[in-house]
Structure formats: structure tokens, C-alpha cells
Amino acid sequence: MDVDAIVLAGGRGSRLGGVDKSALEIDGETLLARTLRAVARADRVIIVGDVVEPDHIVVREEPRFAGPAAAIGAGLAEARASYVLVLPCDQPFVHEAVGILIAAASGDGAIAVDGSGRRQHLMAVLSTDALRGSVAAQSTLTDLSVRALLAPLDLVEVAVPARSALDIDTWHDRNQVLAQGGGRDG
User: Terminal CA-to-CA distance of the chain, rounded, Å?
Assistant: First the structure.
């Protein structure tokens, strides 16, 4: 299966006092670097955000800070593969879910379900054509929820390791990651 990756690395980091989440370090490696390592096998990697990554395609949603659905739309414009792997850059253990999601993707795609049974809308492998259809059907992507963007798609729910869905939105979240053995991958 050919897969491009869309890595969401934008946002204001308001719950972190304006700190750029992509630049936060866990065990000496930024969250963005960890995510890029997790998607290293993708055909193309498209980063959406205010970052400098010369080895990857970097785009920005318009208007700036228009939300993750708008960011997905901006990244999708650069996608060429049959499927896109959509991930945020703030999940230090996301690598544990990537292979599981890709293996389960068929039809419109697959979406991660965490240990509590909740869909993780920013952890999915999606049919590029189906996602483009949903984007085209929206009157605007600005401030649209990703849940609404994905609602028209028939997605297979895939259980992923609970740790893979941990995200860092606050300093408390970061401390919880560190308490779970730090950022070490294994």
C-alpha cells in the first residue's frame, strides 16, 4: 500500500503557555523528530506547521491557526499516495500505532481507538480520494472539527496501544509521559 504522511505540527500551544509543542523534548528528542521517525517509511512526508524541515514538504493552513481540519486540507493538497496517514506531532509513542493502522486500512480507511474506546481522530490512515471528497463537500475547513471532516467516511476502528494515544497538551501531560518511563521507545 502506498501511503503519504501528514504530520500536524501547528497550533498555538496555548495550554503550554505558548510553547511550540513540536519542539518539546522527551529524552533529548523533539516531539516532531519522534513523529517523523514514526512515519519514516511513508512515501512522502508532509508537515503542516511553522517548522523548518528541509528533507520534507512543509505547508501551512490558511488562515493560520484555522484548526486541524484546515491543516489536514493543506497537507492533503500535497498528497500523492492512495492513502494518507494523519498524525499529530504531540504523541511521543505514536510509533506503536503506525503499523497497526496501516495494516488495517482498506476502503475509506482506519481510525485508532484508544484504551477507553474513544476514536482518536488525529490518528488515522485515510483513503486520499475519500478524504478529498469530504474536504470538497465542506463549506469551509476553518474551525471545522476533524470529527465532522471524517464523519462521511466509513472507517474501520482499530484498537491501538493505550500509550500510543498519549498526547502532550499541558505540562501535566508531559510529566505523565516522563513518569511512564520517559520517552524511551521500549
Answer: 27
Please give the Cα distance from 161 to 46 (Å, whole number).
Answer: 25
Q: Is pLDDT at 183 greater than 80 in this prediction? A: no
How many other C-beta atoms are found inside a 10 Å radius of the C-beta of residue 68? 22
Question: Per-residue pLDDT for 178 more than 90?
Answer: no
99 against 176, higher pLDDT: 99
Count of beta carbons in the 10 Å neighbourhood of residue 173: 17
Residue 171, φ and ψ in degrees, nearest 5: -65, -35
What 3-state class would DSSP assign to 170?
A: coil
Q: Which domain holds residue 143?
A: 3-175
CB 4 within 8 A of CB 84: yes
Torsion of CA 74, 78, 83, 85, to 10 degrees: -60
Question: Is residue 69, in this structure, part of any structural domain at all?
Answer: yes
Helix or strand run (H / E) with residue 175: helix 171-179
